Amino acid sequence: MKAGPLQLGVAPPANRGIAILDFFLRLIAIIGTLASAIAMATTNQTLPFFSQFVRFRAKFNDLPSFTFFVVASSIVSAYLILSLAISILHIVKAHAVNSRILLLFLDTAAMGLLMAGSAAATAIVQLAHNGNNKVNWFSICQQYNDFCKRVSGSLIGSYAGVVMLIILILLSGVALSRR
Amino acid sequence: MKAGPLQLGVAPPANRGIAILDFFLRLIAIIGTLASAIAMATTNQTLPFFSQFVRFRAKFNDLPSFTFFVVASSIVSAYLILSLAISILHIVKAHAVNSRILLLFLDTAAMGLLMAGSAAATAIVQLAHNGNNKVNWFSICQQYNDFCKRVSGSLIGSYAGVVMLIILILLSGVALSRR
């Protein structure tokens, strides 16, 4: 097989470098998604006043989009932890192809799921902050200030996870082209 | 270069088949995303009653998430139309590598953007249908029934686009492994 002018550079040992980078990027993505899943899942705020019948308490599962966010980022965290095994396999076996294609597909699906969870939660956080007077949905962040802050903060980790997964997909492509 | 046991099958002309499939999947994705962008952007409903000061009218840009959805799916549609040129190049030049990696990266970014727009819009559609009595956001679909139906329907096309893009990313990986 001749190296054409469009080829990136073909020394297979370079794949070991990519595999090691892949492993560390996965670790960063795990920390980001796991932290944001935990931060969202443990968020609740009880207001200091209450009526006879009702305590004012906000929890993440009051809003279905936040529940979806917690489920999605938990699934992606679990997948990323399991995928470390294949990542280590790639450090040892630089020529593996089928397992790289499998990982490319699963990374893409995981990125889609994590992005869907993050975007749905962001849409609701935006509404909680600003409300929408066209349809009479009021901001809840004046009352549930701490709840809103924590919920907004927990999105950062999952967006970091999305960025890591995009880089991982790109690295898989480069590694596949260099066998 | 010897074909190892992990390799999928190596005849380069097979890449032409993948490139042709790639082209047609892109066409389907363009139809889906473009249709849903247009369907969402042209949605509006004016209620048959009005007070002295206010006409009750719902448009997509009353809700920021719907605006984001229209912008995101328009950008992805435009990108997919432009990417047809590279897709045709791949049918002609089955061995291209760098342009495949570029397309893999851009497809991944486009998939993330489209998924973010769709998920944000879905979160708001869900709220419009069901409301949320924990935070006093009321359903608006009883009044704006046609608006809600059309908005919900327009999401289908963009999710079809997401699925097409995931398959395109997988095909890129397979094509890269088979040079």
TrEMBL record, chains A, B:
Topology of this chain in the membrane: Multi-pass membrane protein
Keyword annotations from UniProtKB, A to Z: Cell membrane, Membrane, Transmembrane, Transmembrane helix
Top-rank taxon: Eukaryota
Cell location: Cell membrane
Transmembrane segments: 23-43, 63-89, 101-128, 156-176
Residue ranges of every copy of the Casparian strip membrane protein domain listed in the record: 16-163
Gene Ontology CC entries for this record: plasma membrane
A Pfam family per the record: CASP_dom
PANTHER family to which the protein is assigned, alphabetical: CASP-LIKE PROTEIN, CASP-LIKE PROTEIN 1U1
Family: Belongs to the Casparian strip membrane proteins (CASP) family.
The protein's assembly and partners: Homodimer and heterodimers.
Protein name stated in the entry: CASP-like protein
Lineage: Eukaryota, Viridiplantae, Streptophyta, Embryophyta, Tracheophyta
